[in-house]
Amino acid sequence: MFEFKLMNESLKLYCTGESIFDFYRLVDPKTHEVFEYDQDNKLNIQEGRCYIFWDRKEECPNCVARHSCVKQRQYVKLEFMYGKVMLIISKPVKIQDRMLALELVKDITSSMLGFNYYRSENKNVENIVSQFNELAVRDILTGLYNLDYIKNYLDNFLQKEVAFNTLTGAAIDIDNYTQINSLYGYNVGNEVLQYVAGIMEKCAISHGGMAGRLGPDEMGMFFINKTSQEVEEICKDVHEEVTKTPLVVQDKKLDISFAYAIAALKSDDESDDFIGRLYFNLRTAQGRKLKNL
After folding, report:
1. What whole-number distance in Å separates Cα of residue 279 and Cα of residue 261?
2. Average confidence (pLDDT) over 100-118
3. Which tens digit of pLDDT belongs to each residue from 40-83?
């Protein structure tokens, strides 16, 4: 590979945005409003939200506009629309003191190797793209939603729903996880995470909530319109399920338990504030648990 800046000027003509991409748009990552930035330096708001273009009624789970602005880096995703596969590259830009995401869009249907094969074999390309996008919002090891997705979910809730609904979260931390890794190896540690995550997700979904991975051995559950007491009862159910049967790994029985803590989302929170408060409450709960041993 060779650095782009060293490319011969004649080749750069083939690499301009106009020659590579079909469309562009500017997206506000918080409001999902769409803008055009014309040649007169006017930022013109357009009708509808960014996700409507993809025939969605709500925000994309894998919102690259938000990721690019928060992380200040480029993100890429695929979308399927009316039989076409679209490539979207999102880059953060600042226009008129406003942080926006510049989305460059390309119809790559005819240039995708294998696309015609999938169509001829009656394979559902839309499902393939959906599976690809699902991987972007899931933690690979546990299958739970990843931290980026959780923050996006919380930000959307704060913007749209916090005036009408409440949200309560619970965070858990597996006891002695570092020692488990040291004694039995990381493969066993991974099995422990997957075991607890599976029980957590099943229980969260059954109560209308969602579960995600917050850190190395920290996981969380989030529920709309449930009281702290109700969420605590759910945590107790998860703990009972986890502890009632030892996990057998490499012919060894591991007794697994965890500490947990609960926090309610406040209207003036940001997602990082809320997750930080969950962590603080969790560390406090762990301290109390150690004192009682």
Report:
1. 8
2. 81
3. 999 999 999 999 998 888 888 889 998 899 889 999 999 988 88
Residue 158: which residues within 8 A CB-CB, separation 6 or more?
265, 267, 269, 270, 271
In this structure, is the dihedral angle defined by the CA atoms of residues 72, 74, 77 and 81, taken in order, positive or negative? positive
Distance separating alpha carbons of residues 214 and 276, to the nearest angstrom = 11
Rounded distance between C-alpha atoms, residue 190 and residue 194, angstroms: 6
Tell me if 24 sits within 8 A of 102, measured CB to CB: yes
Residue 95 β-bridge partners:
98
Question: Using one digit for the tens of pLDDT, what is the confidence trace for 182-197?
Answer: 988 889 899 999 999 9
Q: Which domains does the chain have, with CATH numbers?
A: 4-136 (3.30.450), 147-291 (3.30.70.270)
Position 79, amino acid = E
Is residue 62 within 8 Å of residue 82, measured between CB atoms? Answer: no
**Would you list the DSSP string of 108-167?**
-TTT-TTHHHHHHTT--HHHHHHHHHHHHTB-TTT-SBPHHHHHHHHHHHHHHTTTT--E
pLDDT over 90, % of the chain = 58
User: Which DSSP state fits 63?
Assistant: -
Rounded to whole angstroms, the Cα distance separating 199 from 197 reads 5
Q: Write down how long the chain is.
A: 293
Q: Pick the closest to residue 68 from 31, 27, 117, 11 (CA basis).
A: 27
Q: What tokens were used for 6? A: 């060293």
